[in-house]
Each structure stands twice: as C-alpha cells, then as structure tokens.
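Deliverable D2.4 — example input (structure tokens):
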C-alpha cells in the first residue's frame, strides 16, 4: 500500500488502547538481559523492526533468544539467555538496519568481546552521529574516568552506562556540555535497577558505577508513552477521552507527561527532554489561534530524517506557516478557535511525504482526523516501532453508540463494508436488516447492472428514492445504503429523520481490491472500474459523505469494526 488517506472524525472519541511495548524500554531490557548470567523473560516487549534487529544482533553475539507465545497478548514473552557480560569471540558483522538504539548499544557491547565487530545499517543510519560514543568507548582501557558529550544523543550515554557494571573496575562518566533527553537516561537507569545494578546519578553531570552482576529476571515492559502521544493528541483535538491498559500511572518514561504539555500550546515550549513527542506537539499546534514555538529540538535533525525540515515541508503542504531554526520550530495557529479545524476544504496538495520516518506518518495521521484530504505516503513505515498503528487508529473511531429505537443507517463507497457489517450489527442488536440495493433488485426483478443497462442511472435513483421514503417511518432497522445514496438530498433527509447515520470509510486502494474480489456484478459509473475511477468517485463524494455523517468509521483493515461490535452497541 503506497498511500493511505486518513478520514476526519465527526464524533467525540472515547476508546481504549493497548499500546505496543516501549521501544526504548524493550531494547534496554534486551541488553540488560544479555549482560545477566542466566535466563530472563521479557514480557510485553515491542515486536517491531527495531526490536527484531536488536534480537538479531544479540544472536550474532551468541546470546540465545526466542519468542514464546501465549493465548493472551500479555502472556507472550521473549526469553534471553544472558552470558554475564561474555560474548562470542572472533570477527562478526551485525546488521542494525535503521535502528539507532541497536547501532549504539551493540557498539558498546562490542567493547566487551574479543574480535572485530562490523555494524552495518541503512544509508541514513550511517549518516547519523557515532563519533562521541566511539571516543568515549576508547577511553575505557585507559582510565576509570570517561568523558562523553551529551548534546547529540542520550543513547551514547545509555550505551556506556549499561556496559559499565560488567567492567573490571569502577567507572565514573562525566558529561561534557549539555545532556539532551534526560528522561531517556532515567529509563536506562530504571531498567538497570530492575536487573539488580545501581547507578549513582550526580545531577546528570556525572555518573558513578561500580562492578556489579546483572540478575536474570522476569521483566515487564510498559506501553510506549511516545506512541500514546498520538492518541492523546487526537483525544485532545476532538474533546474526547482515551485510556491505556498498559501505561503505568508512575511511568518511567518522560513522554508520559505529554498531556500536560498540550495545555501549553499557543506559547513557547521547551521540548529538549521529550524530543520524540515534540513532533506530535508540532502537528497539533496549527489547530490553535496563537503561534506556538517549540524549542530545544537540535537532536531532531539527527534522527531517521532531519525532522525539523520534514515538519516544515509537510506542514506547509496543508497551508500552515512555519519557521524553523537550528533547534526550534515556530508554527502559526491557523484556527479561529482553539482546537478548531482550520480548513474545511479538502487538502489537494501532494501526499504527506514520510521520509521513511515512522513518526512523520503517525504525526500527520493526527492531522487527518481533523481536516479532509490528508494522504500519507508509505504508511507501512510505522512498522519500525508500531506495526499495529493503523488498526489502533481505526479503534479511535469506535466510540459507544446509543441508538434507542432509532434506525442505524450505513453510508459509504461500495465495498466499504456496509452490507457485511450491517448484517452482523443487525444480528447483534436483534434488528431487521435492509440492504437498499438488494431491495431494489427484488422489486425490479433484475440485478442492478441490468437495471442501469436498460433504464439508466436516473431510473435507478428514482427507485432508490421510493424505498428510502417507504422505510423512513420504521424503527429499529439497520439499513445499508448504496454508494450513491448521498447524491440525492431527499434520500438523506428522509433516512436521517429517525436515524443515526454512520459513514463507513475505506481507503480507495483497498476498495479497488475488494471490488476485484467480490463485486463484479455491480455496475461502475464509467464501465472501467479502475483505481482512477474509484478515486475520482471518492473525490466527488467525500464532502457529501462527511456532510451527512453523524459518526465516521474507518474500515480500511476490514477487521477492527467487526471484532468490536459488542463494545460499540
């Protein structure tokens, strides 16, 4: 899937999310477990590109690890047989892919083994800084006092901290200059403590570590607070609620405080301690009246892409005025009122480029829930840290619905899932199900394709209008409409008199594939049925679907709505 459109929410979201395990915690736990003597089990670990390459790297170092599945998500665990700080000798090559944590942490582990360690990665990973870490590691054999710069990445210090307990001598690490992203150092020290080793933190200026033994343990990874920022932003922008089953109230992650930072929008905010969620803050800022200036962002230029440039480029595509410096971004508020959509017009600029950066895709998905026409390029790049992101986004649309005796009307493009889901909802509610297209075929005693061939679309629309009028007075129905029912205002007026209208969205590329598989007997507007035709029809009807909708669902995966029907009604 090359592109994915994000559809605006019409309702206030109220949902629960099981977050992926924190990448930062997961990879630190893997390293600590590899340094322990004995077998550790890591529960709730993130399963993603970044964590997979970390486990692969550990296997290269002859650290056995395996995945054990359970019936419930939280019964899954990664088992790691630690070597107590001893690793395979000899020359090896490790592929760290695009993972910064894997590259930096394995570089530090390489100091503990005999032989040459070659670490390979993506082109962008090779461009990211490593010199400060290499310089610090070179000091280990010469001194007990190691100096390291802290202004580019906290991962350098984290890597050094984690290997220090298994060295043969006490180590004092002195930070030269400013230390960025301090909360990530807190995570490192907290994970190390769980595995039985202590670090003395002297106000982040220096750190003292004595020789110690890592203990093999069962470790539970909490949900990713950075990932939670996208859902918190959506809930905030739509005046909704979101809760997380696996994000601890006393989280060890600094990003867990993101909700507090949202309240500072419209002012100057220093995000030096939370750079990963600064991007979420930046894409939320346009929905406020005043300018928001976010500072302390020098490290964003050294990530998967230059994130300040990427944010500037893509925010401008949606009409936002942006000014970027070497370590800040100023975003002009576009909305007339706080948390208001600043554009009701469909965004028609090129798709949002992600630069193969998972956070760019997830950030602009937040934007798409407020304004129409936001299309994300290369949506699968979220696999780096959040493989289930798009399904979890679909959950945000599934707030509880109280129907009473009102009808449930389902609108949307053909193959969006109206009939399929309508039958299941009707069965769940014990209601009568009506498919408008099927009713027309029964009355005309021929398939819709034939009706259109013989009498044209105008005749078909007249038949559709008659049925809409007839059923509008009934109650307790679930009604699946035809894709073009919204083209006639009279249809929607009568259908909505005693009903809740749910617009079911599916991305155009997915609709094309469904049409190929299931709906060859239904006519197309031009007879082509091409992806271009589907996109053209969608572009023509998008505004009308949203205009008449009381509630919007995203059914692009074809899985999330069906598995949550009992939670919606």
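Example output (designed residues):
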């Amino acid at each position: 899937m090359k592109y994915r459109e994000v559809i605006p929410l019409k309702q206030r979201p109220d949902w629960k999310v099981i977050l992926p395990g924190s990448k930062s915690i997961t990879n630190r736990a893997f390293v600590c477990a590899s340094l322990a003597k004995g077998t550790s089990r890591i529960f709730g670990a993130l399963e993603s590109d970044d964590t997979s390459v970390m486990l692969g790297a550990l296997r290269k170092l002859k650290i056995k690890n395996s995945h054990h599945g359970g019936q419930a998500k939280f019964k899954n665990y990664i088992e790691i047989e630690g070597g107590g700080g001893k690793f395979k000798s000899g020359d090896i090559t490790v592929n760290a892919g695009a993972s910064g944590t894997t590259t930096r942490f394995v570089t530090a582990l390489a100091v503990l083994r005999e032989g040459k360690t070659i670490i390979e990665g993506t082109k962008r990973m090779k461009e990211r800084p490593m010199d400060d870490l290499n310089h610090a590691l070179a000091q280990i054999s010469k001194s007990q006092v190691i100096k390291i710069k802290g202004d580019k990445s906290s991962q350098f210090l984290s890597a050094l901290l984690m290997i220090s307990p298994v060295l043969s001598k006490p180590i004092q690490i002195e930070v030269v200059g400013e230390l960025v992203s301090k909360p990530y150092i807190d995570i490192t020290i907290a994970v190390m403590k769980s595995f039985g080793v202590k670090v003395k933190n002297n106000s982040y200026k220096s750190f003292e570590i004595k020789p110690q033994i890592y203990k093999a343990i069962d470790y539970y990874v909490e949900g990713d607070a950075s990932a939670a920022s996208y859902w918190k932003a959506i809930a905030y922008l739509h005046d909704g609620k979101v809760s997380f089953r696996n994000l601890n109230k006393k989280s060890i992650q600094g990003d867990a405080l993101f909700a507090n930072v949202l309240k500072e929008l419209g002012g100057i905010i220093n995000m030096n301690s939370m750079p990963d969620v600064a991007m979420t803050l930046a894409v939320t800022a346009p929905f406020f009246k005043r300018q928001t200036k976010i500072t302390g962002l020098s490290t964003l230029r050294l990530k998967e892409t230059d994130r300040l440039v990427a944010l500037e480029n893509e925010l401008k595509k949606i009409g936002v005025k942006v000014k970027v410096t070497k370590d800040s971004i100023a975003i002009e508020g576009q909305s007339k009122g706080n948390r208001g959509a600043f554009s009701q017009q469909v965004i028609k600029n090129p798709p949002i480029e992600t630069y193969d950066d998972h956070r760019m895709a997830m950030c602009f998905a937040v934007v798409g829930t407020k304004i129409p026409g936001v299309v994300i390029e290369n949506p699968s790049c979220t696999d780096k840290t959040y493989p289930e992101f798009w399904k979890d986004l679909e959950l945000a649309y599934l707030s509880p619905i109280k129907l009473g005796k009102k009808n449930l009307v389902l609108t949307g493009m053909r193959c969006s899932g109206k009939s399929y889901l309508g039958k299941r909802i009707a069965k769940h509610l014990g209601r009568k199900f009506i498919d408008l297209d099927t009713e027309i075929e029964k009355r005309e005693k021929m398939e819709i394709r034939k009706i259109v061939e013989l009498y044209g679309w105008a005749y078909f629309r007249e038949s559709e209008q008659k049925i809409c009028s007839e059923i509008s007075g009934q109650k307790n129905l679930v009604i699946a409409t035809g894709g073009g029912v919204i083209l006639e205002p009279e249809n929607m007026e009568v259908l909505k008199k005693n009903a809740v209208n749910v617009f079911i969205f599916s991305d155009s590329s997915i609709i094309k594939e469904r049409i190929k598989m299931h709906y060859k007997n239904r006519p197309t507007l031009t007879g082509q049925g091409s992806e271009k035709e589907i996109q053209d029809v969608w572009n023509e009807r998008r505004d009308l679907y949203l205009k008449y909708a009381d509630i919007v669902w995203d059914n692009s995966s074809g899985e999330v709505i069906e598995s949550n029907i009992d939670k919606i009604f």
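The radius of gyration is 27 Å.
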